[in-house]
Amino acid sequence: xxxxxxDEHEAGPIAHPKVDRFGFVKQEANSPDGLTRSRSAFECExxxxxxxxxxxxxxxxxxxxxxxxxxxxxxxxxxxxxxxPDCLRGLVWQLISGSRDLLLMNPGVYEQxxxxxxxxxxxxxxxxxxRTFPSHVFFQQRHGPGQRSLYNVLKAYSVFDRxxxxxxxxxxxxxxxxxYMSEEDAFWLLVALLKGAVxxxxxGLYLVGLPLVQQYLFQFDHLVKxxxxxxxxxxxxxxxxxxxYASQWFITVFSYSFPxxxxxxxxxxxxxxxxxxxxxxxxxxxxxxxDDLVKLPFEKLIHGLRNFPEDAMNPDTLLxxxxxxxxxxxxxxxxEEYEKQHGKVSDSRIKQKLQELNCPDAASLQLxxxxxxx
Amino acid sequence: xxxxxxxxxNSKLVLLGDSGTGKSSLVLRFVxxxxxxxxxxxxxxxxxSQTVAVNDTTVKFEIWDTAGQERYHSLAPMYYxxxxxxxxxxxxTNQESFERAKKWVRELQVQGNSNTVMALAGNxxxxxxxxxxxxxxxxxxxxxxxLFFLETSAKTATNVNELFYEIAKRLPRLQPAPNxxxxxxxxxxxxPAERAASAxxxx
Lengths: 374, 203
Ligand SMILES: Nc1nc2c(ncn2[C@@H]2O[C@H](COP(=O)(O)OP(=O)(O)O)[C@@H](O)[C@H]2O)c(=O)[nH]1
Ligand SMILES: [Mg+2]
Prior knowledge:
Chain B: Protein transport. Probably involved in vesicular traffic. The structure holds two protein chains of two kinds. By secondary structure, chain A is mainly α.
């Protein structure tokens, strides 16, 4: 629509005429980059005020963050839900995920993993490198800096935890992080997430059998039936289950084949509040499109569930809707129910590692014979 | 139910095979006639559909393209269970992918439906210079295991439509056999799982 205006107003990080604000090469027509309207002067001012507030809140290099967080967790939550300013996103993500602490306490570890270790997953990783965000300028260039850092982070992780190794999907998570921080920072954020520095560890998403994916799908299936009974009924009739449309939501936390501007907003909340936002957003999407979806037969339904209309994916309507959906209590109950049927996903191994990686408190950590935390 | 002259059947088809062998590229070629050098890797599974006409019958393939990595194995059964056809893809330049294909064949022979039409596709046939898997070896293996075999190239489109057409021809519903129930000619196998009865009907 407002193509001309749009281009004038886009001061992207890279001077590339066909690239959106986030560095994705634009598709011809309606590229879902969230820039379908230009920003007014008013909005720009508001954005600047917001950035100033945020800067005050986190302090220089994040020095005031912990203090602020302890005093006013609700203010933090509210502000994060409105979206972290893009210029501070990388830093704030590291602060809220706990990865900053891991990094500071483990100097040199990343370098060691990248340079000296070899991984059994190297070929698998290489094969996927050019297939991860292939439409993003940073990752497009063969053997360019983007592809190299993506390779390094994934390889380092596959060495850091050889049991998880490399699993398809991790590349999108790492890729998203790398657009906002350095390799080493991205690596530690991945560690923080998968090992559960702040929230429950998510490595079960990638372990053999994908146990956590299975659990999340089980929980989501029930939540759909409970929150949207009519749609749940329709899914049952058409024999559609969440594994057909939602597995990649969980495996990549919406970083795969979702509009990037929406993915970022979800990640803001995800890192602070945990995985329940993935459930809420998933339910909100279904709720938003409910009246259309209930009418669709199998094939169109599958298509619809993988191609939500652009208005459904506007973060400023979708997220407020997601916040109103309450899932915490049921998620807990459903987890128990799932564990009764299938055993615990968080087996002793994960628990042990979780403890190990509470590095700020734990005395030391041994992993693959190396000290990770001193 | 009128004896159908122009039949429409729906058939669930699943693509299996190692990651990077070109499953998504084959589907894209078949469904959209395109080839994209850097296709995003498939996370979970993706769904497509395309129709093929065989004589007086239109076969609509409902295609599940799966993620190939070993780790995703646990998600595969729900896609191949009840499939009318399975295409197992390997990369002719990669011996390991051929071994992996054989594993898939064995798994389908044990776990799958015995009526499933199985095809073996040796993809990337345009890369002759880098060939590691001789066509004869694959052909022999296919014969021994009752698979239909073709070498394909998603890149040049060689044998891609042929592959799906040949599968369509081999579907049991298209074989000249009397329909035992004398009833509706409909394949509800796109319903991924257990339930056999289906509401859908042919024309
Ligand atoms: N030369 C050649 N490359 C192919 C062919 N089919 C796929 N590829 C390439 O192989 C890589 C993996 O393809 P993809 O379809 O994503 O594989 P999948 O993981 O099995 O779905 C991509 O880089 C494709 O461009 C082919 O027929 N010939
Ligand atoms: Mg694929």
